[in-house]
From TrEMBL:
Aldehyde oxidase/xanthine dehydrogenase a/b hammerhead domain boundaries: 39-146
Domain of life: Bacteria
Matches recorded under InterPro entries: Ald_Oxase/Xan_DH_a/b (IPR000674), Ald_Oxase/Xan_DH_a/b_sf (IPR036856), Ald_Oxase/xanthine_DH-like (IPR016208), AldOxase/xan_DH_MoCoBD1 (IPR008274), AldOxase/xan_DH_MoCoBD2 (IPR046867), AldOxase/xan_DH_Mopterin-bd_sf (IPR037165)
Residue segments, region Disordered: 1-26
Segment forming the signal sequence: none
UniProt organism field: Streptomyces bobili
SMART domains: Ald_Xan_dh_C
Compositionally biased intervals (Low complexity): 1-16
Designated name of the protein: Molybdopterin-dependent oxidoreductase
């Protein structure tokens, strides 16, 4: 051995021990399942298996509206390998009226088909091909009826449902109806039908239980609500139905539709065998809910300085065949119809109606996204009429803490709208593309699709958006969590589903921060745990995260009290930092690991935000717990001859309350902005005569990495909401709401065209006579 080698190997020169990985709140802790997902070993619902497995297939209606004359299952039942065929006659119960989004929807159509793809029958067989062939062998005789596809005609049409065609009407009256401004601008706007298009299609497994019940293994985002609906339809008590949440392959809306999971459970109960169903992409498009297509009419009044005097609007949501979450979406649309602006007088009429179009439901930012596109178009029109810079006009009317919403509710949470807008306004603009062959890819359409560089116009536009967090109008928001710690390892039990929003990572960070332990596990979710509610509107960051924090603090007290008593001091004078317990005076110093040795501690806690109230007959009431705001500046290049649009850059400023995980927060904002690009430019689920056209990822154009613009998060305002745990706000919905409006604003600036429809059609961006 050489002297150099001996020196390198000596203990004195040994490499220092690696520093501990930072953890706790405010740190970019990676997701626990990140490695499994990237390596392809993460267990999704489609990967499930059980001994004696049968395969299911669902027969769906090819018509948007029809009367069912007869259903003949004889041929399907006689096919070799078929174990069961079920129709509406085999459903022992029905959804409980008024409970959950499935309350007005049958498991299978019985007398009338109300939308394309509605389930008619389901089959279980010993092979997936056999199941599909048997489903196709079910003979259904239809009397095809004319569908009601125009929501404006639904008011006078024959009732499509026993509950009628009008699902909800909200008249909002705020201020003086006689108020008028010197400047008046009007507009009519249409928002198309968008699909959440989850990367993984629906899949699940149903396993019968010895007690006559059933266990459903699903990628559910609201397991307790799904359990209650299933139990009612199966004619069972809720404790006889258990839902186990399997790996959720991302969700920006409700993951499961009852036309998928309920037939699955019925087949398992009928056959006494495990039954698996994996939806095709077409079935996925047909089954789950979509974003509400919306018709909006607006009239804005302003004084000569551009300050808003009155806003009048009519909002019509196409709910499709069933109510689902349309009442909640309409409440958001009406309440936020004026946007994050001070409007002393507002008169809004909102309706949600049934049609024979595919059902609409919860999709990220529902209601708020549609009105944002309309009121921001109105602000652009007003700025043009006044000859004022569009950003300056918005600043003159920006909402702030202490202002009053059109619903009469005072904004008590941080509302830094002006600060957000100024941040994106002042951010440097991107450089113009070079007029050279090497830079052709920068042109709209790319090298093969772009026209002449001289036909490209650059536009800059702005969008201000707002969303509410948690439920609204008296929804009882509550979540329960248990934190256990044994042998220095903590476990969190909470029925909050990890759907990609990062809750499991946040729960680990909360426990690490509070208890000073490194190893924290989040238990799988099932309905044996207390309910935590649906995974939408930032609920789990607020409500479930709050429950985890409270439970962890209770365990912390159990840990510190004996130690504090021993030294004759209050446990509140002890602190936990980096795994060490120290007193305020430095007399006591020990480690968390030493104090936990041989101990088992646990606590259960709930988090329930302050109550809200329903909107009254005039659309007034304190309906929302908290609000989140966002400002986006869009820069686009438009080929005014071809109508092609390239989003160059989106500059984002957002109020987030408190940054809990910087990397995760940035990812959520970037994902939301990119989703908004699709809504603005490409995503349009076409339904001529109520029939889904091209229900696949070829016909439905999702934005790809090549479509994603440069996203610059220029400012995150950390002004904590004092009523929220940790002070944090929901992060992912408001950029989805805001970015389509900002992109449309930029296209208007580039072309001078009104752009009153989303997604933006090429013909809307073509400028003639140039």
């Amino acid at each position: 051995m050489t002297s150099e080698a001996a020196t390198a190997a000596s203990p004195a020169e040994a490499a220092p021990a690696p520093e501990p990985i930072p953890h706790g709140l405010g740190v970019s802790l990676p997701a626990a399942d990140a490695r499994a997902k990237t390596e392809g070993t993460f267990p999704y619902a489609a990967d499930l298996w059980a001994e004696g497995l049968l395969w299911a297939a669902v027969l769906r209606s090819p018509h948007a509206h029809a009367r069912i004359v007869s259903i003949d299952t004889t041929h399907a039942r006689e096919m070799p390998g078929v174990r069961a065929v079920v129709t509406h006659e085999d459903v022992p119960g029905r959804p409980v009226h008024g409970r959950g989004p499935a309350a007005d929807r049958p498991v299978f159509a019985s007398e009338v088909v109300r939308h394309h793809g509605e389930p008619i029958a389901a089959v279980a067989a010993d092979h997936p091909d056999t199941a599909r062939m048997a489903a196709a062998a079910v003979i259904v005789e239809y009397e095809v009826l004319d569908p009601v596809i125009d929501p404006e005609l639904a008011f006078e049409a024959e009732p499509l449902h026993p509950d009628g065609n009008l699902i909800r009407h909200i008249p909002l009256h705020h201020g003086d109806p006689a108020a008028a401004g010197e400047i008046v601008v009007e507009g009519q706007y249409r928002i198309g039908r968008a699909d959440p298009a989850p990367i993984g299609a629906e899949a699940g497994l149903a396993v019968p239980r010895p007690d006559g019940g059933v266990e459903l293994y699903l990628a559910s985002t609201d397991p307790h609500s799904d359990r209650d609906t299933a139990a009612a339809c199966f004619g069972l008590s809720p404790d006889q139905v258990k839902i186990v949440v399997t790996g959720v392959p991302g969700a920006t809306a409700d993951r499961e539709d009852q036309g998928f999971q309920l037939p699955l459970g019925l087949l398992a109960l009928r056959t006494g065998c495990p039954v698996k169903l994996t939806a095709t992409r077409e079935e996925s498009f047909l089954g789950h809910a979509h974003r509400h297509p919306t018709l909006l009419r607006y009239r804005h009044h302003a004084d000569a300085e551009g300050r808003l005097v009155k806003v009048e609007a009519q909002i019509l949501l196409d709910a499709g065949a069933y109510a689902d979450t349309s009442p909640e979406a309409l409440a958001a649309a009406v309440s936020f119809a004026c946007g994050p602006y001070v409007v002393p007088n507002a008169f809004i009429e909102g309706w949600a109606v049934r049609t024979n179009n595919p059902p609409s439901g919860h999709v990220r930012g529902e209601g708020a996204m549609q009105v944002c596109a309309a009121y921001e178009a109105q602000m652009d029109k007003l700025a043009k009429r006044l000859g004022v810079d569009p950003a300056e006009l918005r600043l003159r009317n920006a909402l702030a803490t202490g202002d009053v919403l059109p619903t009469g509710q005072t904004v008590t949470c941080p509302a830094p709208v002006a600060e957000l807008l100024q941040a994106v306004q002042e951010y440097p603009l991107p450089a113009l593309p070079k007029d050279s062959p090497e830079e052709d890819w920068l042109l709209p359409g790319g090298p093969e699709g772009a026209g002449e560089p001289g036909a490209v116009r650059r536009g800059v536009g702005y969008g201000l958006g707002m969303v509410h967090m948690l439920g609204a109008e008296g929804t009882d928001e509550v979540s329960t969590a248990t934190v256990k710690i044994q042998d220095g390892i903590a476990t969190v039990l909470c029925a909050a589903v990890e759907s990609g929003q990062g809750f499991t990572t946040l729960a680990r960070q909360i426990v690490q921060e509070t208890l000073g332990v490194d190893e924290v596990h989040v238990a799988p979710v099932d309905t044996d745990q207390p309910p935590a509610g649906p995974g939408c509107r930032g609920r789990h960051t607020w409500v479930s995260g709050g429950a985890v924090e409270r439970a962890a603090k209770m365990v912390r007290t159990q840990l510190l009290q004996p130690l504090a008593h021993k030294f004759g001091m209050s446990h509140e004078l002890l602190q936990i930092t980096d795994g060490k317990i120290t007193s305020y005076d430095g007399v006591l110093s020990t480690t968390v690991a030493e104090e936990l040795h041989g101990k088992e501690l646990w606590a259960t806690a709930q988090c329930r935000p302050h109550p809200t109230e329903p909107l009254d007959g005039a659309g007034q009431g304190d309906a929302f717990v908290g609000l989140a705001f966002c400002a986006i500046r869009a820069v686009v290049d438009v080929d005014i001859e071809l109508g092609s649009v390239r989003v160059v850059e989106l500059a984002v400023a957002q109020d987030v309350g408190r940054i809990l995980n910087p990397a995760q927060l940035a990812a959520r904002i970037e994902a939301g902005v990119t989703q908004g690009v699709g809504i603005a430019l490409t995503e349009n689920l076409r339904t001529p005569r109520g029939l889904l056209r091209h229900p696949d990822l070829t016909g439905y154009a999702l934005p790809t990495a090549l479509d994603a613009p440069d996203i610059r998060i220029v400012k995150l305002v950390e002004e904590r909401d004092v009523v929220a745990p940790f002070g944090a706000k929901a992060a992912s919905a408001v950029p989805v709401v805001t970015s389509p409006a900002a992109i449309a604003s930029a296209v208007r600036a580039a072309t001078g065209r009104p752009v009153n429809r989303l997604p933006i059609r090429p013909q809307a961006a073509v400028v003639t006579g140039q």
